[in-house]
Structures are given as structure tokens and as C-alpha cells.
Amino acid sequence: MKVSPKILTTSLEHSNHGARSLNQIGSLGESVDGYKDIPLDDFTPRKPSVPVRTNNHEAQKTEFVKDEGMSWFVTGLFVVGVLAGGGIVALPTAMVQAGLGVGLVFTVLLTATFTYTSHVLGKSWAILQQRWPHLYCTQHCRKPYPEIGYRALGHGMKTLVSVSINITQFGIAVVYLVLSAKNIHDFLNALFGLNISFCIVAIILALALLPVLLLKSPQDFWGAVVAAMFTTSLAVILIIIGSAFDFGDCVIEREYPPPLITNYFLALGTFIFAFGGHSAFPTIQHDMKKPEEWTKSSILAFTMIAVMYTPVCVVGYLTYGNSLRESIINSLQTTWLQQSVNVLITLHCILALTIIFNVCNQEAEEIFHVPHHFCRKRVFVRGAMMAAVLFVAESVPNFGPLLDLFGGSTVALTSIVFPCLFYIYLLAGDKMTNTRKTTLSDPSIQTSKIPKEHRIQEEGGIWPSILQVIANVDKPTLLFCAFIIVFGLVGGAIATWSAIRQISYTRFVPPCYIPASLFEAQSAPHASESFHSRHNSLNCCGAGQNISRYGPVNEHCSRPNYNFYSS
């Protein structure tokens, strides 16, 4: 799909040389590839977001504005709608795993970290649009995040980013499909007494979602995803009310698990998953009316997410203690509140899947050369993607360990490591490229004196070495980004190992397509109850997980699991 952006041109200094440079790219008195001219004097000069250092040359800055696109405020709500659902139900469990103090530190630390990494990822995309406008402004870019990796570190990194994004988005889609199917299963059981297998519900849900996923771009369904943000906000209010109702009955026998190092890292994996949606961010930013306002959207989104997450985590921790399991929804004992939250979170997940699938689908369509317009080939590719997600969901029907696994692995890479890594390399390359252009245009400098070690990209620009990054990036930015990169690599690796251990042993659940009876004799001693076969949707509270406001334990409560936090 072609886009029709305008170039709003501002400069630090108005000069004849600046006007000549602008005329060369067609932004004064000409129209190039759908760009519309706006006279330079109609705009107030603004400080560029990425300074360009030159010798006796005016640093030019262009702001790209589309005729159509989302505002920064709507984009912020859009990001909240994509991120908040899975985190709301899983983070109270992570708070119990980490303890209240450590959990609050995680919340504050990761809110700041992910806001910053979202900011620098947006700045990286802005650098690409400034340096290569003919590639990233005048036409629809299907793979903006891999392009950022390519411009920062070359072809190999572009491939690695594509693989990481595909795995991340695929994993998030699996988690949300499993969570949605689980919630629908519990809803039918609680209100109508129907014990339809989770496995069947997942298949029906996947088939129902497929027509919606044939839409092309976030612009086609942004209203639905913003609506998801409001459903999550209402769910937060109801969770707090429901937990307050249960507090008096549950707090008397509330207990907390002993501290375990593995639980801290599992909690970290959950927190990373809950805050990390960066693999979709460049695609969303690309659909903004003013992509350079992405930082405003990031600050708005992560502030709102922190405001949503924190009270739910604290109230769940104080009320239920170690009786919490995969989802706080099942611990709410007021049935109408529990199922209202169930419906709201399920609606959020289903609506959010529209954007989550979009990144995977666009990657697959690029590989198979699917046209941008609607066609049978698109139906086939997107149908195959849904089938693959469904197969994994049926193979590992336990969303808690899945969430920890993807949070500690590919989400940590795409949301923590890659944004900072690419940003410092693009900053260094941008500075070196401008220095080289200035040198080439200076007749007093001999061409033979120009450094030859620069790795020149095909369309202009330089891939710097690590030593050149150290030399050309300001030290505060370099050190801060390096700290975040190390934190993401080390913390993510340990969280991934802990999650794999959970999936394979401590909380193993048999696949849907293999009879559970085959595993009974050899099941792990701490194996989690298979939620797709249970008959009760309420996890009772108290140390014995046997406190219910509604009568006999064996009638209203699910089977206790005293080893849930013993992994």
C-alpha cells in the first residue's frame, strides 16, 4: 500500500546552501513520490531529535507527516490495548513469586526500562526515515524492525531480528489463544455447568478469529484494539473490587511461599512478557500520522500500564498469597465479578490478537511474495499461520510457563537488548556518515585521506565497528544502553532456563492430542493440574486452599496445588 506523506521541512539555519540542499531532494518547488511541498518559511525552526554535526554546513531536519494515520494519543492507547491483557492476570502470581518488595522494584525498574527502550527504538526508526526517505517514507514498509537491524548491523542482524520477531509474536499469539480459550472454558463451566474441553474451545476460537485476521494493517482495526484497552481498564477495577470482597475471608489464613531463586527469575520472565511488546512497535509507529511523536505515545502507554498493573498486583498479593496460581481471575470468589473479568480479559486478548498476528503475517507474506491487496494467497498464508499457532497451543496447554518462556527469551531480546544495541550503532553510523559526506564535499581535503575502513551500505550510510561505536556515541548513552543490554541478556537467559524446567517437569501438562492417562504413571510429582479437564473454576484461598464463601470445599473449589511455587 502506498502512503502519501508530506515533508515538513525545518532547519537550524536558513541559508542559500540549505535551500539548495532541499531543492536537490525536491522539497522546495517540486513533488517527489507523493511528497507535497510546504514552504520552508511557514514553519518555526525546531531542534532536531537526532543532532547532525557538520563543518560549516547547516543541519537539516525533516519531519514526515502522513495524510492519514493515528495520532500519538490514539497510538498510546493502541499500545496499551496490545500489552495489558496477559500481564493483568499473570503479574499478581509473579508478585507472589518475587515478594512484595522485589516485585515493586521490578515494576518501577521495568516501567522505566521499557519506556526508554521503546523511545530509542522509535528514534532508530526516525533515523532510517531521515537518512533513507525514499525507502521508508514513500512506500509501505512491511518489516520495519528488521530494517532497523539491517541499517544498524547488516544483513545477518536483519535475519536474526526477523527470526526473533516471528518467534516472539508467534509465542504471544499462542499465549493469548491459550488464555482466551481457558477463560471461555471457565466461563461456560461457571455459568452454565458446561465442561467443554479446553482443546475444543481453542479450535472453535481459532476458526472464529481467522476472518478478522485477514485485514491488512493496524489502521484497518485500530478502533477495536483501543476498545481492548478500555475493556482491560474495566477489568482492573473489577479485580480490585473482587479482591477487596475476598480480603476479610482470605487474609486470616493467607501464607506466602518461601523465597526461591528460581521463582525470582520466573517472576522476571513474567514481568518482561507483560511489559514487552516492542516487536510490534515499529509497525505501529509506521502507521502514525507523525512517526516522530512516538516517544509521547510510549510515555503515555507505559505510564498507563504501570498504573493498571501495580494495584492489581498489590491487592492480589495481600489478599490471596500463595493460593494464587496461573491467573488471578480464578481466585475471585464473587461469581459475577469473576466471570465479568473473564469476559473482559478474553475480549482484550481476542482484539489484541489482531495486531499480534499482523507482524507474523507480514513476515510470512514477504517470504511467499504475497501481494499487498486481498487475494487467495493471503488467505492461505494467514490460515496456515493460525493453524501453526493452534497446534502449539494444543501441544502446551498451560499459559503460565509459556508466558515465562517467551518473556525470558525472545521478548527480552526484542524489547530490551535489540532496541539499545541498534540505537547506539545507528547513532555512531549516522555521525560517521555525515562526517564522511562533509569530508567529501570539502575541496580542501584530499580524497586519499578519507578513512577506508568504513563499511559503506549500498544506499549510503556506514556500519560502524564496536570501537567506532565507543568513539562516536556520547558516554552516558553508551553506558546506559550497555547496562540495559547486559541486564536483558543475563536476566532473560536465567528466566528462560527456569521456564523450560517448569514446562518439562514441575508444571507439565499433557498435550491435547495425547490421552492424559498415558502420563499418569510417569507424571512429575509436582505436575500442575490440567485446566482443560477440571470441573471447577474457583481456586479457593488460604494456606490449605480450602476457604470458600459458598459452602463445601469439594463442591466449589478446584483441586489444591500446594507445590505451585515449589519449582
Automatic annotation (TrEMBL):
The lineage of its organism: Eukaryota, Metazoa, Ecdysozoa, Nematoda, Chromadorea. It is a multi-pass membrane protein. Keywords: Membrane, Transmembrane, Transmembrane helix. The keyword Transmembrane applies. This is Transmembrane amino acid transporter protein domain-containing protein. InterPro entries: AA_transpt_TM. It comes from the Eukaryota. Gene3D superfamilies: Amino acid/polyamine transporter I. It is found in: Membrane. PANTHER family: AMINO ACID TRANSPORTER, AMINO ACID TRANSPORTER TRANSMEMBRANE DOMAIN-CONTAINING PROTEIN. Residues 70-433 form the Amino acid transporter transmembrane domain. The chain crosses the membrane at residues 70-92, 98-121, 160-179, 191-214, 221-241, 261-278, 299-320, 340-359, 379-399, 405-428, 478-500.
